[in-house]
Design a protein that fits this description.
- The chain has 5 helices and no strands.
- By secondary structure, the protein is mostly helical.
- It has 2 domains: 3-46, no CATH class; 65-125, no CATH class.
Length: 133
């Protein structure tokens, strides 16, 4: 079974349990689909499912050039703010960016941006990768 089919089966199972829970006060409804799902699941009695719970998968689409430039400008502004008052600067841009990353991410969150400066974002924006820890 492929990963996507496995995931789909899991979502179907969870949704079926949620529907069963909110659809009837009878713990054992006479529903053929539910019986099949329950037979396929091992250890289903130990799973707690809330009807309001929904599984969502967010797949971020590739950034267009305008969004890349907008994000680069934001990073540049926060980077410059961080280093503006410091005389003790590392020699390379990559080292400076590594030291400023926490500040940049705090500022991004504070101004409502939903992305953070991490390895994937650095790659998208054409910035040096973070220093390995």
């Amino acid at each position: 079974m492929t990963m996507s089919r496995w995931f789909k089966k899991g979502v179907e199972f969870i949704n079926a349990l949620a529907d069963q829970w909110k659809g009837s006060s009878d713990p054992n409804p006479a529903n053929e689909n539910m019986d099949t799902v329950a037979e396929e699941a091992s250890g289903a009695d130990s799973i707690a499912v809330r009807p309001e719970s929904k599984i969502s998968v967010k797949i971020e689409e590739p950034l267009n050039q305008q969004e890349i430039e907008r994000r680069r400008e934001i990073v540049r502004r926060f980077f410059n703010d961080f280093w503006r008052s410091s005389d003790d600067k590392p020699a390379t841009f990559a080292e400076r960016l590594n030291r400023a990353e926490g500040h940049i991410n705090e500022r991004l969150a504070a101004c409502g941006e939903t992305w953070q400066l991490d390895a994937a974002t650095r790659k998208q924006l054409g910035l040096p990768p973070p220093k390995p820890v």
